[in-house]
């Protein structure tokens, strides 16, 4: 898209993710954890507007007043890292980024990572860099372990620290009811507090992969688990209560996403999802009824 008076522009949807499973295998020497998890893209999204400007540097604005608008914003960092990596000078031209935030922040939904992925994809196009998905993923990893997945989307097995990705088949889409309790959770603190030798319930990842491909929801529900719940549920017991509430409201399965605190319920039926969402909206401010998405490219 080109707008003569304002420079070329591009608007992208930056989709959130949920973790259909999350297993932590061991802690690495650098403090990061070796994971085995299944990621799922959902329709909830921020909008990321990009515009090339004759003025130098990166300028960032957002409707979310509490988010940083400088180097502290992961979208800002993504633009700077791509420019440096690809040899684009930000002294002779610049970029304006506007983030319309809809994804709850620090919620376990990878909102920041999704914005960063959108900036990388968008600037790759606007700057005509021609970088492949794999090249963008390599550039992105030091900025955040969820970004390589956000660049890819769809349903995927993520291993390593999150960067070893294998696309998976989700035979039937789901409606997803998201509820974010009004607490903030730091991903770093959750991983730091995790006691690997005290984990009793782990996901059955292989059974889950098979069940997703066969649309076998009974096996799926039994195979899903998130080991980070062992840290967050004792700290925020509401998360456990919300899981039980979603199951009582006819969810096929319910789990905490990522490091939390967002809890999601999967529904086969849109009406049941809507009705559960309406009931939960009476109790919680941040409730979203959305659906799973297939990989777009
Ligand atoms: C919880 C998940 O969202 C699940 O998808 C991710 O594992 C976290 O991904 P993220 O927020 O993009 O992670 P980063 O921004 O790279 O790291 C935040 C913090 O989480 C911890 N971290 C993250 C990923 C990983 N495999 N092991 C870790 O221990 C690190 O202490 C790090 O300081
Ligand atoms: N563009 C952005 N969107 C959201 N948060 C951002 C952004 N840039 C920086 N941040 C900061 O990053 C922190 C985590 O935000 P984010 O919403 O990505 O967490 P999250 O959903 O828990 O991520 P993950 O699931 O990857 O752990 C917040 O404290 C926020 O201030």
TrEMBL record:
<comment type="similarity">
    <text>Belongs to the GHMP kinase family. IspE subfamily.</text>
</comment>
<feature type="domain" description="GHMP kinase C-terminal">
    <location>
        <begin position="209"/>
        <end position="285"/>
    </location>
</feature>
<feature type="binding site">
    <location>
        <begin position="104"/>
        <end position="114"/>
    </location>
    <ligand>
        <name>ATP</name>
    </ligand>
</feature>
<protein>
    <recommendedName>
        <fullName>4-diphosphocytidyl-2-C-methyl-D-erythritol kinase</fullName>
        <ecNumber>2.7.1.148</ecNumber>
    </recommendedName>
</protein>
<dbReference type="Pfam" id="PF00288">
    <property type="entry name" value="GHMP_kinases_N"/>
</dbReference>
<keyword id="KW-0414">Isoprene biosynthesis</keyword>
<dbReference type="InterPro" id="IPR020568">
    <property type="entry name" value="Ribosomal_Su5_D2-typ_SF"/>
</dbReference>
<feature type="active site">
    <location>
        <position position="146"/>
    </location>
</feature>
<keyword id="KW-0808">Transferase</keyword>
<keyword id="KW-0547">Nucleotide-binding</keyword>
<dbReference type="InterPro" id="IPR004424">
    <property type="entry name" value="IspE"/>
</dbReference>
<dbReference type="GO" id="GO:0005524">
    <property type="term" value="F:ATP binding"/>
</dbReference>
<feature type="active site">
    <location>
        <position position="17"/>
    </location>
</feature>
<dbReference type="InterPro" id="IPR036554">
    <property type="entry name" value="GHMP_kinase_C_sf"/>
</dbReference>
<comment type="pathway">
    <text>Isoprenoid biosynthesis; isopentenyl diphosphate biosynthesis via DXP pathway; isopentenyl diphosphate from 1-deoxy-D-xylulose 5-phosphate: step 3/6.</text>
</comment>
<dbReference type="InterPro" id="IPR006204">
    <property type="entry name" value="GHMP_kinase_N_dom"/>
</dbReference>
<dbReference type="GO" id="GO:0016114">
    <property type="term" value="P:terpenoid biosynthetic process"/>
</dbReference>
<dbReference type="GO" id="GO:0019288">
    <property type="term" value="P:isopentenyl diphosphate biosynthetic process, methylerythritol 4-phosphate pathway"/>
</dbReference>
<dbReference type="InterPro" id="IPR014721">
    <property type="entry name" value="Ribsml_uS5_D2-typ_fold_subgr"/>
</dbReference>
<dbReference type="Pfam" id="PF08544">
    <property type="entry name" value="GHMP_kinases_C"/>
</dbReference>
<dbReference type="GO" id="GO:0050515">
    <property type="term" value="F:4-(cytidine 5'-diphospho)-2-C-methyl-D-erythritol kinase activity"/>
</dbReference>
<keyword id="KW-0418">Kinase</keyword>
<comment type="function">
    <text>Catalyzes the phosphorylation of the position 2 hydroxy group of 4-diphosphocytidyl-2C-methyl-D-erythritol.</text>
</comment>
<feature type="domain" description="GHMP kinase N-terminal">
    <location>
        <begin position="73"/>
        <end position="154"/>
    </location>
</feature>
<dbReference type="InterPro" id="IPR013750">
    <property type="entry name" value="GHMP_kinase_C_dom"/>
</dbReference>
<keyword id="KW-0067">ATP-binding</keyword>
């Amino acid at each position: 898209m080109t707008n003569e008076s304002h420079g070329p522009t591009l608007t992208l949807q930056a989709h959130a993710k949920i973790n259909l499973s999350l297993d932590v295998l061991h802690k690495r020497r650098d403090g990061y954890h070796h994971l085995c998890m299944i990621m799922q893209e959902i329709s909830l999204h921020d909008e990321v507007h990009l515009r090339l400007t004759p003025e130098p540097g990166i300028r960032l604005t957002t409707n979310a007043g509490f988010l940083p608008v400088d180097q502290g914003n992961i979208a800002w960092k993504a633009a700077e890292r791509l420019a440096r990596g690809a040899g684009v000078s930000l002294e002779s031209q610049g970029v304006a980024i506007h983030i319309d935030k809809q994804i709850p922040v620090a919620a376990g939904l990878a909102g920041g990572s999704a914005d960063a992925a959108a900036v990388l994809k968008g600037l790759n196009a606007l700057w005509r860099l021609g970088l492949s998905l794999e090249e963008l993923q390599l550039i992105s990893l030091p900025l955040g372990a969820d970004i390589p997945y956000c660049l890819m989307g769809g349903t995927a097995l993520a291993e390593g620290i999150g960067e070893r990705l294998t696309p998976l088949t989700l035979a039937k889409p789901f409606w997803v009811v998201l509820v974010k309790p009004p607490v903030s959770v730091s991903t770093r603190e959750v991983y730091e507090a995790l006691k690997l030798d005290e984990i009793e319930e782990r996901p059955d990842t292989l059974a889950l992969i098979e069940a997703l491909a066969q649309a076998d929801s009974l096996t799926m529900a039994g195979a899903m688990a998130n080991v980070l719940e062992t840290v967050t549920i004792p700290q925020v017991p509401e998360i456990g209560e919300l899981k039980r509430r979603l199951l009582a409201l006819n969810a096929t399965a319910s789990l905490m996403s990522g490091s939390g605190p967002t809890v999601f319920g999967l529904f086969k039926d849109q009406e049941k999802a809507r009705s559960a969402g309406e009931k939960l909206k009476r109790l919680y401010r941040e409730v979203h009824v959305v659906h799973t998405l297939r990989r777009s490219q």
